[in-house]
Amino acid sequence: MAPPDHRRPYKRPAISDQQRRRELSLLRQAQSRLDAQHRARCLASSVLSLENPEPDSVPELELESKPGEERSEAPPKEFDVRQASKLRGAEARKWFARQLMLPEWMIDVPDRLSQDWYVFARPAGKRCFVVSSNGAAVSRLRNGSILHRFPSALPSGARTRDVSGSAQSYSILDCIFHEPDQTYYAIDMLCWRGYSLYDCTAEFRFFWLNSKLAETGACEPPSQYHRYRFSLVPVYNCDHSGLHAAYTGAAPYVKDGLLFYNKEAHYQTGNTPLALVWKDENCSQYVIDTDSQGNVPKQQQVVLELQEDGKLTTSDDPPVVFGCLDGDFIQKSGLCLGNLLRFAIGDGGLSFVDGGLDKADLCYLGKSNRARAFADSYSKIVFQHMVRHSPLKIDDFLSSISSSVDQENQPRDVEMAG
Amino acid sequence: MAMEITQILLNAQAVDGAVRKNAEENLKQFQEQNLPSFLFSLAGELANEEKPAESRKLAGLILKNALDAKEQHRKYELVQRWLALDVSVKAQIKSCLIKTLSSPSGDARSTASQVIAKVAGIELPQKQWPELIGTLLSNIHQLPPHTKQATLETLGYICEEVSPDAVEQDHVNKILTAVVQGMNSSEANNDVRLAATRALYNALGFAQANFSNDMERDYIMRVVCEATLSPEVKIRQAAFECLVAISSTYYEKLAPYIHDIFNITAKAVKEDEEPVALQAIEFWSSICDEEIDILDEYGGDFSADSDIPCFYFIKQALPVLVPMLLETLLKQEEDQDQDEGAWNIAMAGGTCLGLVARTVGDDIVPLVMPFIEGNITKPDWRQREAATYAFGSILEGPSPEKLVPIVNVALNFMLSALMKDPSNHVKDTTAWTLGRMFEFLHGSTLDTPIITPANCQEIITVLLQSMKDVPNVAEKACGALYFLAQGYEDMGPSVSPLTPYFQDILQALYGVTRREDAGESRLRTAAYETLNEVVRCSTDETAPMVMQLVPLIMMELHQTLETQKLTADEREKQNELQGLLCGCLQVIIQKLGSSEATKYVFLQCADQMMGLFLRVFSSKSATAHEEAMLAIGALAYAAGSNFEKYMSEFYRYLEMGLQNFEDYQVCAITVGVVGDLCRALEDKISPYCDGIMTQLLKDLSSNQLHRSVKPPIFSCFGDIALAIGENFEKYLIYAMPMLQSAAELSAHTSGADDDMTEYTNSLRNGILEAYSGIFQGFKGSPKTQLLMPYAPHILQFLDSLYMEKDMDDVVMKTAIGVLGDLADTLGNSAAPLIQNSVSSKDFLNECLSSDDSMIKESAEWAKMAISRAISF
User: Fold this and answer.
1) Domain range annotation of chain B
2) Helices B729-746 and B791-804 meet at what angle, rounded to 10?
3) Which of A8, A32, A208 is closest, CB to CB, to B637?
4) ipTM
5) Does B776 touch chain A (CB under 8 A)?
6) Per-residue pLDDT tens over the stretch B529-562
7) Of chain B residues 646-675, which have a CB less than 8 A from chain A?
8) Chain A residues inside the 8 Å CB shell of B473
9) Candidates 1.20.1050.10, 1.25.10.10, 3.20.20.100, 2.102.10.10; correct CATH number of B709-871?
10) How far is B697 from B858, CA to CA, in rounded Å?
């Protein structure tokens, strides 16, 4: 129990380098842990998998094929969007085409339109992905080809001293590039600063898109580190006034139809009935499909996929069968499984029983353009058919909204289960 | 036996080693066979006036050691052992001890005092031995002086041993009354007065209530101040020690006395013997400590509430305090710079001056400048050194605006003094002052640089030249270069002003490490540390020069491993050197490994380097182990999955590190390295996880391991889970209950002090990082539902953290992240639980609107994950 020693450090630096080495190591470890955590949070949720093996690939002969073993290419190759950008040709086309949510064509008016749906006017232009990461933004069309590679104010979209996110983080927007004003209109958000929004509701994604995009300065006019302006599209609740605003309201862009999004729907890649597109002459220049010369053909044309047993199907999942080719014809014409074939719909047209397709009068025209990745969808064929014969009109929506409001107010019958 | 113990105790102090050894063996046997009888015999021996002084003293010491130990777990065992003893045996022992306080033998009395305090330390907190204080104080006034002295000494030791809340206020009052009366000038016996003064030093912590009472405080202060004027030097010194303790414990009560205290201390500094003068200066240093803390807490915002107001004692005393301190600077000892243990009035005065500068800032400058200007060119080295030391001392505290113009004028003078002054003492202080200039006034945050392209070359030339001077001067020159480099460290990837001199600097520093006399004055250490700092601020351009250093340092390390047959002293030096070399390699690995361009080249030496590090583990030195472990962690980080090839050989040292309870720093660093390995190897670490997890779980359940290692162990669970994913399954049944009980313990901090709150928050952070890692590790696996049973408790933990309102920002960020991870991994099945938790509403909202971008980012992630989980 010696008396206290009040000796103080004399002419010594306050920090020892050993302590500094410890602290710097701890700092590095803490930072690495954060990075690992961040990667884990971003990763699995945004890995987009190549779900189906390519339907037209020929299975390789396996020498020692074991019973019950899956086909060699069956384990899905997992890519994220950056890896996928290394894909080329048909593979890239198929991959990228699958990553966008493709609205079905509206062939009847969904229930509860005013409660459960959003509506907005679709800008005319090229639908594309915009991926920003590692100091650049890249936009890719549905067929995978690059539209632009450019510096952008999007997160990690330019080589500036942006400290707001790690270089690894990336963002993906679903956009339409509108030529006349050289603007990307963002219609949906898939990933933001590495966080995946695929599994979020449309309501949440639109909220996020609206609150985050402007924050970055991406909606500012172009500048040195920001080549293209981004813009938001006004989204309305699909009630009377919303529908009216989307349909007749002034927009800074040329309209190409109306898009309807179910509020609860997640971002589902491929065709989905929870997003719908509708057009008429008032809100779109391209209501009826044209041929490669830009003329409206006399008869409606459709593209269908040839299946194993000669069946002709749409691109839907499950596919809808529109007809059948006989084996001789297939052999003679040198067609094979998975070919996309072009048909005209003859005077017999399409006939429906109980809301489903019964018969189609198809005339074979030939193989489709090589750039096509998919057959037409059922809803597209039917919509084009309706446009030519008995189109769905804006008034049908309006009356559906009024009647559903009425219905809401009426007492409902109780369904007995016993 | 009672006859025999005397002889055994004497034999245990015999000159003959064999006799001694035999006696120690006998004592051990006796203790093991019959502990109560053993302890009672010792107490009896101590109390017996007929026994030899030597055997009595040793009996007392053995008894004392049977009650207390340094190591926490051992101490705990001894306490339990004593409490379990038969009450009547304990009563007999205690009675012997009390009796010894009146022994004519001073040694016996003093030993008994200490043993009584140890028993009191065990029993008073248990509400046992309630009569102790009463017994000691009864008829204290009638006691003969030697018993009174022993009694007061005992009271002092008890106060040192026991925490204030174990003693009733009534007893505190009686103790203080007796002690202060014993200190009073009316006490004729100096031994009694000294014992009382030293007892007061320990009792001050008990006097909270008495210091709040004006009359009692006045009385205590008067008696203490009078004691500083005692003719007996030891009493004066002890009284000043009391004043120092009062200055930190009762700062806010000092205002009425500060003027008198200044006069007393000024007189002591000027006239009294050095031990007393040192305490008088220490009083003012201690006041500075207090005011610096208080002003720090104000944080420049003077409207903020601080527990204790600042009385600005230093600012008020400044005009008289500064001249008093400056005068002490001229009382240097000839060779104080070569003597590691030196501490004299000039050193204490200069140190205090530095603290005063930090307390008052700009105000000190005009008071010190005349002294500097008046002395710095004088022929007497004492005057030049004192002036330089004064200048160096005030460089921290005042604003750059005030100092930079002066430094710009002084810099050239200092550089030339460092080259030309005939006195080593002056050169030593000059180099130190240059270091202080660079430490506080050079760096990217300052507007007006004191180092410019115009003078940079000269500064570096002078410092490199000075590194060839005598060891103590060279060491200070290295220190100055350290801070010069540090100032350029955060300049980013732009061209460093050091680049043109980089090669010369590396060569000079490497040269210093190889000087014959580098072992003196800490020179070698300083050179390696500076080398490290220079490496840290290397750029792409200078990286190849750093690369050239690698084989040299490796060769040095190799040589230390080859040298055989060393004396204990040489071995210690060798181990120290190994630590320095591993430290240097670690810094190089971290630097070169962080850039893709340099990583590849440097990793070509990885095999060789790893071989050397593994050999360092065969030494016994904790410091060398720690440095080698840190270096290996850095290497794993740089090598990534390629590190796998070293694992089979490295694993046993990893395990050894995790088992090193004694040197807990080594254990802590090894835990950190496990994290590095997890991230480097990912699932390739699986084969080693059984062993690692076993060891980590043992560490957590040990009460021997320092508590600071436990939070990182929890974080490490998260690292492992993240690396091996669902394979963590088999550890869940062990890890989860540990996490759960730690979470329960750390959920509430109510009433804890700042240190405890800080520790609790680090524990919380560790637990939360573990949860985060486990959830993310299991994400997307078919086994996620295994985690479901733990979800309610985890959400409850988050809720209680939110309610408790005392988590820091780091915990907040981690906690809200865990909420997101839970939602992300468990998805819809946890949705009802999540929606019922407070965390998913109020806590999340609070985090979403946080100003801290890290918290906000985590919260946004959590919001998204939750919205996905509940919308499925």
Assistant:
1) 269-300+307-334+341-398, 709-871
2) 20
3) A32
4) 0.76
5) yes
6) 999 999 998 988 899 999 999 999 999 999 999 8
7) 665, 669, 672, 675
8) none
9) 1.25.10.10
10) 29
